[in-house]
Amino acid sequence: MSVPDYTRRDFLRALGVGMASLAAPSCTAGSQRVGGEARAGKPNFVIIFTDDQGYQDVGCFGSPSIKTLNLDRMAAEGMKFTNFYSACSVCSPSRAALMTGCYPPRVGITKVLFRRDNIGLNPREVTVADVLKGQGYATACVGKWHLGHLPEFLPTSNGFDSYFGIPYSNDMDGVEDRDKSLDRAWRQKDYTPWNPPLMRDKEIVERPAVQTTLTERYTKEAVKFIHENKSRPFFLYLPHTMPHVPLFVSDEFFVEDVHKAYKATIEQIDDSVGQIFAALKTAGVDRDTLVVFTSDNGPWLSKKHHAGSALPLRDGKFTTYEGGMREPCIMRWPGKIPAGKVCGEICGTIDILPTFARLSGAKVPADRVIDGRDVWPLMAGTRGAKSPHEAYFYYRGTTLEAVRKGRWKLRRSKKKIELYDLKADISEKNNLADNHPEIVERLANVMKEYDNELKANSRPPGKVEKQA
Fold it and tell me: Phi, psi at residue 398, to the nearest 5°?
C-alpha cells in the first residue's frame, strides 16, 4: 500500500459523493434558515455511540436500576428500535461497519485492533463522514475511534475535519503491574494503571488520558462543535469511551460502591445526552437534527458487576447470540420521526450510511458493494414499512456464524447447529434445529451463498509497512 495515495480524497469526486443527485425525502425539502444562512434542506446528524452497553442498560429498554431520564425522554420524543443490530460483537469491526455501511469482513476489519497492529480502516473506503463532507457538512469525531491508531487511519484521514479522543480502548497501554481487580472503584487521581493517549487530530495532547474527565470533556467538545457549526449542516460522531472497562466517572457521579460503578457510568453518559440536546435547542437547530443513540456491542459479562446486562437476550460481547449484537437504539428528529413509537423491524448500524446519504441528498458509492440499506421509511414510521433486509448476517471474525431471516435464526458453530424462533423465544433458549431440518437447510444455503459473495467482493484494510 502506498500511504500517500490512501490519504488523498480525489477519488470521492469520481464517485460523485459530492453531487446532490439523489432526491431527498419530502421531509427535508425546502430551505431551512439558521443563523441567517440557508441550510438547503440538509439535516444535521448526531450519532452517540457507547461501548459495551447491554440491550437492557437503558431505562426505556427495561433496566431495573439505571436511571436514564434523558434517553427515556429521547425515546418518548422519538422512536425505539427493538431489533437493531451492531455488525459485530467486538469494538473495531463494529465501528468499521458503522462507518462504511458494510459487514466487517467486507472491509477487512475483523478483529480488535491493538497498538502492535499496523492496519486500520482503509482510507479508500467511503465513510459516513466522507459522504456528508461531500455535501458541505462540517464533520467531527469526538471520543474513542479504534479503527487504527496510526496517522494514516485516524478520523482526519477518514472524512472528519477534526478529532478529539483516544484512538483505542481505555484498557490498552496498561502498565506492567496494574491492578485488574474489580473490587475497587477506580479514581485516577490515586492510581494510574492505564496509559492511553488523548489526541487532538493527529497530535497527542495528554498521556495518560485522565479518564475520570473523558465523558465530561467529550461532551464539552461536542457542545462546542454544535455551537460553532449551527449555521451550516454538521455531522457529529460521539463514540464514548465508556462503559468499556475500566469504568471511570467524574467526581460528580462517583460512588464508592463498586457494584454501582456501572450504573454511575451509564448515568453520566445519560447526563451527556441531556447536554447535547440542550445545546441543539440553544443553538436553534434541535428540529433540524437527527440524533441516533446506540452501542457498539453487548456487555462484557465476564467483568461481572463492572458489566451491564443484555436481558432478556442471551449472552453478550464476543458472541453471535442476540446479547452480543442486538443493541438498544433510539432515534429522534422532531416532526420527522414520529414520537413515542417502537419499530420492531430488522435494521442496524450498516444502514446508517445509505440512510444519511439519502437524507443529505448524496449518492451511495456505486463502485463497491455496500451491505446497508436505506431505512428511512422505518424511521419515518411509514405505514406498512418493512425491513429492506431479506436476511441479516452475524459474523465473528471472518466466520459467518449465524443468519436471521424473519423470525428464524440459524447459528452454526464447531460444536452444534442451533435454530431459534426469535419471535417466540427472544432469549434463544429452545433449539429447534431437530424439529425443522428443512429450515436449517434453507438458511444454511442462504449463509453459504452470502458468504461466498462477500468473500469474492471483499476489500483489504489499510496497511502501513513496519519499519525494519
Answer: -95, 0
The full set of domain ranges for the chain reads 41-388, 398-456
> In the CATH scheme, what is the homologous superfamily, with its name and number, of domain 41-388?
Alkaline Phosphatase, subunit A (3.40.720.10)
Say which residues have a Cβ less than 8 Å from residue 352's Cβ, sequence separation at least 6: 47, 98, 101, 128, 292, 372
∠ CA 31-81-266, nearest 5°, is: 100
As a whole number of angstroms, the distance between CA 144 and CA 198 comes to 10
Tens digits of residue pLDDT in 164-209: 999 999 999 876 555 555 565 555 555 567 889 999 999 999 999 9
Choose the catalytic residue: 88, 141, 146, 244.
Answer: 146
Quote the distance between the C-alpha of residue 306 and its chain's center.
21
Q: What is the pLDDT of residues 367-418, one digit of tens each?
A: 999 999 999 999 999 999 999 999 999 999 999 999 999 999 999 988 899 9
Q: Annotated catalytic residue: which of 91, 102, 141, 347?
A: 91
Q: Is 305 a catalytic residue?
A: no
Determine if residue 236 is left, alpha or beta; phi over 0 gives left, psi from -120 to 50 gives alpha, anything else beta: beta
Whether 405 contacts 391, CB under 8 Å: yes
Active site residue 91: yes
Q: Looking at domain 398-456, does it have CATH number 3.90.1300.10?
A: no
